[in-house]
Amino acid sequence: EDQVTQSPEALRLQEGESSSLNCSYTVSGLRGLFWYRQDPGKGPEFLFTLYSAGEEKEKERLKATLTKKESFLHITAPKPEDSATYLCAVLSGTASKLTFGTGTRLQVTL
Amino acid sequence: EAGVAQSPRYKIIEKRQSVAFWCNPISGHATLYWYQQILGQGPKLLIQFQNNGVVDDSQLPKDRFSAERLKGVDSTLKIQPAKLEDSAVYLCASSLGGGGWSTDTQYFGPGTRLTVL
Q1: Is the pLDDT of residue A17 over 80?
Q2: Which DSSP string do the residues of B87-116 spell out, in sequence order?
Q3: Between A55 and B98, where is the model more confident?
Q4: Per the CB < 8 Å rule, is A102 touching B43?
């Protein structure tokens, strides 16, 4: 069974204080790793898809990287509007279902 | 482009009552998913449709949950009778393609928050 573990559970940063969120996974045949952002009371919003080890993608202050065992979401100089829960999910085997981690709750303060 | 639409946004019911949720996917998306998200957890897939056929319903509690996707567009998810542990957010998602080898991005709706008293 696929497993996805995210750490830390919660992270509080000051504006401008860069950090990284971790997503470690155990799957049989990774076909894609997805990062989503979820604001309170809303559905997950797609950020990135990574397909193979060594791949990197960037969007504004966010950069996602992938190795054979984990993915990192790096946040550079975060702003209060980056506050949200960040979810990691994997797609593996022959199924199209996403297996999600429990998320990292990020709070960025002034 | 319009996103995934869901209704209602909130629902409060007593245990043993029934409830239904509606989802309209992004236009042209063949695959539709229903997820359950319990507070503090990530979403968990309940059922996946490709067009109007079921691809995966292995985690759907079939004694109380049912879902249909008539004409391969809109979908409804029903719970009858509801239990306290069904309190959660029910998310609908859609993707362009589907099938076992698709890596298409899944786009989520705003969800329906269900409270069972």
Answers
A1: yes
A2: -EEEEEEEESS-STT--PPPEE---EEEEE
A3: A55
A4: no
